[in-house]
Write a structure and sequence with these properties.
By secondary structure, the protein is mainly beta. It contains 1 helix and 13 strands. Strand 8 and strand 9 form a beta hairpin. It is globular and about 50 Å long. It binds calcium ion. The site of calcium ion has 10 residues, from strand 13.
Length: about 210
């Protein structure tokens, strides 16, 4: 079932991105009927946190323990990098193999480290950081490298705004209203131009906290 949803969403996101790029409006997000996200919210920790709340629900959120609790696709190209992580000493990195076509890669938390929603609070904040590299200087704005984050929590489906990656670390955050309880997972897809062999993508410091 999970593979089916991911395949379906990958198709939808890919189509939405291609349409957005084609019409020159890459900042638009796809239409999803059950999205409940407000991206215009204060930074994490700016609001007071009630006792017992505020713990990061994502295990190994900054890849300091390698890919423990994470899975990725495709099998080749992903690594743990110590080169310019956003936080700590490590980050997740994907390096494109070159050739033609599109980079289309996924990173998501493993089943054995599901995100546990306890149902005590409906309000959550989610964020993560990303950047890209083109060490050969072949960077072009004409074909952006874009990351999308999706969350499947307690029966609900949510997504952040697309983040067009640059060579500096950037953060995307969102506020979610999640009802119910149970295990869930987060999933990030990155799409970009594979025509330049040196395209690399780095992700770090995922956070999901109730407040
Ligand atoms: Ca890190």
């Amino acid at each position: 079932m999970r593979a089916f949803f991911q395949a379906l969403l990958a198709s939808l996101i890919g189509l939405a991105l291609l349409l957005a790029i084609g019409f020159g409006c890459s900042s638009d997000s796809p239409t999803v009927s059950d999205v409940s996200i407000n991206n215009d919210q204060p930074e994490l920790n700016e609001k007071p946190v009630a006792p017992g709340r505020g713990e990061n629900l994502i295990d190994n959120p900054g890849f300091e323990y390698g890919f423990s609790c994470w899975q990725y696709s495709p099998d080749a190209g992903w690594s743990i990098s110590t080169d310019n992580p956003h936080g700590g000493e490590k980050c997740a990195r994907y390096t494109a193999p070159g050739g033609s076509g599109w980079v289309n890669v996924e990173l998501y938390n493993a089943d054995y480290c599901c995100v546990h929603i306890d149902g005590n609070s409906p309000r959550y904040r989610f964020s993560y950081w990303g950047r890209m590299e083109r060490p050969d200087g072949a960077y072009t704005d004409s074909i952006p490298t874009v990351a999308w984050a999706w969350l499947f929590l307690a029966g609900g489906t949510y997504h952040t705004s697309p983040m067009q990656l640059t060579e500096s670390w950037q953060r995307v955050s969102a506020e979610l209203t999640v009802t119910g309880s149970g295990c869930g997972w987060i999933w990030v897809q990155v799409i970009g131009d594979a025509n330049e062999a040196t395209l690399a993508v780095a992700l770090d410091d995922f956070e999901l906290r109730s407040y």
